[in-house]
Write a structure and sequence with these properties.
Layout lengths: L1 H12 L4 E4 L9 H14 L6 H7 L4 H12 L5 H18 L7 H10 L3 E6 L3 H10 L8 E4 H4 L7 H10 L6 E5 L2 H9 L3 E5 L8 H7 L2 E3 L2
Parallel strand pairs: 1-2, 1-4, 2-3, 4-5, 5-6
Helix pairs in contact: 2-5, 4-5, 5-7, 10-11
Amino acid sequence: MIQKIIDTINPIIQGKKTLIFDVDGTLLDSMPMWARLDIDYLEGMGYHPEPDFCTKVKMMTISDASIFIRDYFGVSKTPEQITCEIMDMACSHYENDLILKPGAAELVKTLKAMGYHIVVATANEYDMVKKCLERNGIMQYMDGLVTCTMVGSSKQKPDVYLKACEITGATVEESVVFEDSSFAINTAINAGFDVVGVYDATEEDKWDLICKLTKCQVVF
């Protein structure tokens, strides 16, 4: 499988210096956990959210979802407490049970052996991601790990990708971004990056768009 992926992406990565990988939904099979996290939190307190709740919170930040949870269910906790408790649950998953997508570890090791610099660019938190990648045995192959918090902006801006380039001294033209999110792919493309689209089931409804936007695609 890995050789097939290498053959697919080779026309894009050939001659490049740095490969920038998103984590959630790209290397890590974590999106199903995030999709259920609010529900698991509420069910742990004895609440049973209806489908419309899931639809409403899907696009919210954790902070906004915490306010919504407090108001929607009348939870007698502050939004800050709710956010902290939800993030504690997420941290536990990253530290203990989330795994890489099949073939992701082998791909990273192979690309490193081929001489590429590899940097992680994530919207997630540094410690959570670092511990998870260490547990899954691939952090040692990374030249750096950059988060949106570190650069002060979400992936609606290209700052996290540009910072990843800085770590290895590569230019945008010398780098390739691997992403599963259609909006993040747009951000990277608009900043001048070549992008490899990575399939994740949570973005299935946007896969046709991702295929049109990106020069090649990877399905683990």
